[in-house]
Design a protein that fits this description.
Subcellular location: Plastid, Chloroplast
Strand content: 5-15%
EC number: 1.14.19.-
Cofactor: Fe cation; Fe(2+)
Oligomer: single chain
Helix content: 55-70%
Function: Introduction of a cis double bond between carbons of the acyl chain.
Low-confidence stretches: 1-48
Number of helices: 13
Keywords: Chloroplast, Fatty acid biosynthesis, Fatty acid metabolism, Iron, Lipid biosynthesis, Lipid metabolism, Metal-binding, Oxidoreductase, Plastid, Transit peptide
Mean pLDDT: 88
Bound molecules: fe (ii) ion
Number of strands: 7
Length: 396
């Protein structure tokens, strides 16, 4: 059963008419919407609201997955109960943010906060920029639950739907919710960051949403989440390592504990995609190639703080420089997933399927080569101010 991806899915044309703040005003834009369910591509009027942040989004392609593939997910509900829900942890066995933070009801609260702040003094500003960006990414959780509920065949239809897919999405969200809470409270207590600027960035980001280009397809959606859970596992793991190097073992424990959750989520999402490869190898390899051609965008790529038009790019440069999340990690994740799903060994593919297979199997080394070339061309380091740390300058 082949996934017939809509032609529009392969367009890389960017919808670039969102204005930058200097010219932010009420403007009307035309956005193309394509849908196989709605036969002809639709062009819809999109009036920019004054509270929309100045970020670009791509051409929005919707409902590219045919009905027979939606049925696959309905038929997998029992399978998901036995194979996916087991990767959730019962609430009673879960850690909570309070386990890692000073207890405001205890006598020793002031002392514990003092200790936390002493430890945080040893940590450099650029580390805080990365940790803040990671926290903001976690705090935009409403967007990720929305994204999962855009997916045909697995969305939570009622808000309390009893399907395995909906149970997973709600419980996954509930687990994730602790990540932003914990990092937010730690950063607040540290006194090292401008909480108001951070809170504004979160508000802007949730208002912007995200543009993962998953087209309401759980094939694309679960490839995206597999990639992202591994990316967050890597980046929280690296902030844990750096915190340890800076002598803050408690912060290292916080980041490491979050990383362990991400790993468990990665296991669940990669298992779903593994199952799709088993049922529909052609459709799944097309979906993987499609997501990789479009490039996996980071969940917080639309971030804005009201000041820096290139905030996400600047944050990404710092994460790259500190080695928390790098272009090499991107290539490594792809290579890991290609191996995890045995993409090289898929058999019985159509001609198009084999082309998609060749493309994804050869992609990681190509990304690494391009990255090396980009590194050698990299210009002199420049600095930018980050509002999150009171406008102090950081090397990119
Ligand atoms: Fe998370
Ligand atoms: Fe996660």
């Amino acid at each position: 059963m082949a996934l017939k991806l809509n032609q529009m899915a392969f367009q890389s044309r960017k919808f670039s008419s969102f204005s930058l703040p200097q010219s932010r005003n009420l403007r009307s834009h035309r956005v193309f919407m394509a849908s196989t369910l709605n036969s002809a591509p639709r062009e819809v009027e999109n009036v920019k609201k004054p509270f929309s942040p100045p970020r670009e989004v791509h051409v929005q392609v919707t409902h590219s997955m045919p009905p027979q593939q939606i049925e696959i997910f309905k038929s997998l509900d029992d399978w998901a109960e036995k194979n996916i829900l087991v990767h959730l942890k019962p609430v009673e066995k879960c850690w909570q943010p309070s386990d890692f933070l000073p207890d405001p009801a205890s006598e020793g609260f002031d002392e514990q906060v003092k200790e936390l702040r002493e430890r945080s003094k040893e940590i450099p500003d650029d580390y805080y920029v990365v940790l803040v960006g990671d926290m903001i990414t976690e705090e935009a959780l409403p967007t990720y639950q929305t994204m999962l509920n855009t997916l045909d065949g697995v969305r939570d239809e009622t808000g309390a739907s009893p399907t395995s897919w909906a149970i997973w999405t709600r419980a996954w969200t509930a687990e994730e919710n602790r990540h932003g809470d914990l990092l937010n409270r730690y950063l607040y207590l540290s006194g090292r960051v401008d909480m108001r600027q951070i809170e504004k960035t979160i508000q802007y980001l949730i208002g912007s949403g995200m543009d993962p280009r998953t087209e309401n397809s759980p094939y694309l959606g679960f490839i995206y989440t597999s990639f992202q859970e591994r990316a967050t596992f890597i980046s929280h793991g690296n902030t844990a390592r750096l915190a340890k190097e800076h002598g803050d073992l408690k912060l290292a424990q916080i980041c490491g504990t979050i990383a362990a959750d991400e790993k468990r989520h990665e296991t669940a999402y990669t298992k779903i995609v593994e199952k799709l490869f088993e049922i529909d190898p052609d459709g799944t390899v097309f979906a993987l190639a499609d997501m990789m051609r479009k490039k996996i965008s980071m969940p917080a790529h639309l971030m804005y703080d009201g000041q820096d038009d290139n905030l996400f790019e600047h944050f990404s440069s710092v994460t790259q420089r500190l080695g928390v999340y790098t272009a090499k990690d991107y290539a490594d994740i792809l290579e890991f997933l290609v191996g995890r799903w045995n993409v090289e060994k898929l058999v019985g593919l159509s001609g198009e399927g084999r082309k998609a297979q060749d493309y994804v199997c050869g992609l990681a080394p190509r990304i690494r080569r391009l990255e090396e070339r980009a590194q050698s061309r990299a210009k002199q380091a420049s600095t930018v101010p980050f509002s999150w740390i009171f406008g102090r300058q950081i090397n990119l």
